[in-house]
Specification:
The protein folds into two domains: 180 residues, Rossmann fold (3-Layer(aba) Sandwich), CATH 3.40.50.1820; 45 residues, no CATH class. 33% of the residues lie in helices and 27% in strands. The protein contains eight helices and eleven strands. The longest helix is centred in the middle third of the chain and has 17 residues.
Length: 232
């Protein structure tokens, strides 16, 4: 099936913020929603490559920016897993109202945690694919926030993160830090309905060689080729 075009769609979340996305329309009612990772956006390679690969298989795909990222309205916030799950909720409901058949939600990196969190709360999607999502969210934070980050954020209320050149990148508030530390990926997975097909995968975004993502579960829903893989 050939593509019938790319459409820019704006969806309002429950905070009144406009979320901007691109629909890869194939003419099929089947639809996969793709979620980006931390400090990312819908134009990054994993999201575009996934949407394009699905498009080649005749499956429509929608990639969008979470609030505070890319073209979407709102302020960028560290952590923010639960609120991003609610952004995803707004997107899912939008397409259900359009009578699309949502076959899967895919999340890359932080987006992988978001799709798991979403499925654990709403249980209204048949398949969830987590690509390189972090399981232990409490790990790896010292490298980004520095030593004694808990003590410093409790004392000052926030930590400003800078890049290697000393340029300000973003602010981490105590509230947003606690959002990450209290997001339990294992507990979320246990709450996902047993009828929902769950697949974990990995992707090398920096390789020039084509990447194969195992999508055994998505194949069941979207009728992908028998190789059980998706070339991106």
């Amino acid at each position: 099936m050939t593509s019938v075009g790319h459409q820019r769609i704006v969806i309002q979340n429950n905070h009144g913020e406009n979320l901007v996305g691109i629909l890869h329309e194939t003419g099929s009612k089947d639809l996969v929603i793709i979620c980006h990772g931390f400090q990312s956006k819908k134009e990054r390679i994993p999201m575009v490559s996934l949407a394009t690969a699905l498009e080649r298989e005749g499956i429509s795909a929608f990639r969008f920016d979470f609030a505070g990222n890319g073209e979407s309205e709102g302020s960028f916030m560290y952590g923010n897993y639960r609120r991003e799950a609610e952004d995803l909720r707004a997107v899912v409901q939008y397409f259900y109202k359009k009578e699309r058949l949502l076959t899967a939600i895919i999340g890359h990196s932080k987006g992988g945690n978001v799709v798991l969190l979403y499925a654990s709360k709403y249980n209204d999607v048949p398949a969830v694919i987590n690509i390189s999502g972090r399981f232990h969210l409490e790990k790896g934070m010292e490298g980004r926030l520095g030593k004694d980050f808990l003590q410093r954020i409790k004392q000052n209320g926030y930590i400003d993160v800078k890049n290697r050149k000393g340029k300000f990148e973003y602010r981490v508030t105590e509230e947003s830090l606690m959002d990450r530390l209290t997001t339990d990926t294992h507990a979320s997975c246990l709450l996902i309905d047993q009828n929902c097909r769950l697949q974990n995968a990995s992707i090398d975004c920096f390789s020039n060689v084509h990447v194969m993502i195992r999508l055994d579960q998505l194949q069941c829903e979207c009728h992908l080729p028998e190789t059980n893989t998706l070339d991106i």
